[in-house]
Amino acid sequence: MKVRVLGCSGAIGSSPDAAHDPGGTTALLVDDDIMIDAGTGVAVLSDDELARIDHVFLTHSHLDHIAYLPLMIDAVGDARDAPLTVHASRATLDILRAHIFNNLIWPDFTRIPSPDAPGVRFEALEVGECFALNGRVVTALPARHTVPSMGFAVSSGQACLAFSGDTTTNPKFWAAVSALPGLRHVIVETAFPDTQIALAHAAQHYCPRLIADDLSGVGMKAELLISHLKPPYGAQILDELRAALPGVNLRALQAGEVLMLL
Ligand SMILES: [Zn+2]
Ligand SMILES: [Zn+2]
Q: Where would I find the Metallo-beta-lactamase domain in this sequence (predicted)?
């Protein structure tokens, strides 16, 4: 199993920190058929790559995580003979139905080209639920954000990667992650520097101090890969994380990198 980072930025626009290239907003490609979130990072995929995606797992409904979903469903319709399956919490799916696929912002592709053969089908899943796909297992993990949200773990059977989605203080996530067999990497968001802790609380994101609080007493051996950095603050956030988490193996996640989970 491999995980390709299509985008992992907290915003669009290039970062002034050339050492850190997060690409567009959040999107991860697992092998060639499973996507986790569908932010603007999806723009790097070709038509053929888009058409091979059978399953999209969404952490939540915010635009930076779903922006390319409506467009990709439309783009691959002619090339596919089965609907794309979107997996998310029931609350997130209800939001997508009401506010995106409502025939105003975008057509209701759950009913076109026809209700019997639609472009997309929605499948609800709950935190703690596992979904097996040809030897890979996707597990929904708890998250705490301003809208209903979840993280995901993907496992090959031998090795596992966990992804926090958008979250703030979340001890349940770390407890669940610590119990995952074969855990190699944890992609964790850190949207804000500590100087913006009030904003982190208001927007329900992490800043370094809040991650350090959650990780005290958790023996984290897996590599932490930091995502969702707000571009002007990337280097500052990483410096603060390294100071707050001495001895923890961490670095910024990069767009284009491929994590092998064998
Ligand atoms: Zn969000
Ligand atoms: Zn986000």
A: 24-201
**36 DSSP β-pair partners:** 28, 57
Whole-number Å distance, alpha carbon 243 to ligand 1 midpoint, is 26
Tens of pLDDT, residues 145-183 = 999 999 999 999 999 999 999 999 999 999 999 999 999
Integer Cα distance of 13 and 230 in angstroms: 10
Write the CA distances from 79 to 12, 54, 76, integer angstroms. Answer: 29, 12, 5
Distance 25 CA to ligand 2 centre (A): 8
The CATH architecture one would assign to domain 2-260 is: 4-Layer Sandwich (3.60)
* 87-100 mean pLDDT: 98
pLDDT in tens, 224-244: 999 999 988 999 999 999 999
Rounded to 5 degrees, φ, ψ at 261 are -125, 85
Q: Does residue 14 register a pLDDT over 80? A: no
CA of residue 117 to ligand 1 center, whole Å? 31
Strands of the sheet with 258-260, listed across from one edge: 120-124, 84-88, 55-57, 34-36, 23-30, 2-9, 258-260
Q: Which residues pair with 23 in a beta bridge?
A: 7
3-state helix, strand, coil in the chain (%, to 5): 30, 30, 40
